[in-house]
Amino acid sequence: MKKIFLLLFISFVFNFSFGQSEWYHFSEEFYFVKEVPVNIFHGKNFRFEIAVKGKPADSLSKVRIHGISLGKGEDDYLNSDFKVESRTEQDWTIYTIMGKVDPKAARLWFYSAVNGNGDFYFDDVNFYIEEAPRRWKQLLLFNPSFEEKNPDIFYGYFVSRRRSPNLKTQLSKEISKTGKQSLWVKTYRVQPVKQIAKSQ
Hints:
Number of helices: 1
Shape: globular
Oligomer: single chain
Distance between the termini: 36 Å
Order of helices and strands: HEEEEEEEEEEEEEEE
Radius of gyration: 17 Å
Structural class: mainly beta
Number of domains: 1
Low-confidence stretches: 6-21
Helix content: under 10%
Largest sheet: 7 strands, antiparallel
């Protein structure tokens, strides 16, 4: 699992290109992952949704949402050609990951990451399987709206073990999409790193 987290971290470090020889990225990143077992849904289409309200502190900061298929082994990650779309509902952005369950997949991981600075709220996690053409069934997920009463606010999720003095995570009772609270991730004073590509 640690190798997968490292792979995800490397793969999703947020970067912007400026010209062909230099770009910026945030080296500090926070993420959490919702796992969904899919052994009995091989070959079926799925939709994963999560509601996000972002208040980035600058133009480089944002949220990244992604999904990956895994087989039976701990590091058995599969080619995951999933599509990500977004729409706006009131002042929330609903990210939707769509794809087909790989015949070798045992579980899907849905990855939500914060890159940069700002206040970011997460809520209303949903998963749907297409049982028949245009007939979708919602599957129950554990702690989908961060409402569970548990000292661990990430109860039911994997979370990055990287800790930074510029990161705060807590539940917000003031802002929510569904239920009475949401996950609030606050990052600040994170500096973008400039990298220059070597000329060939």
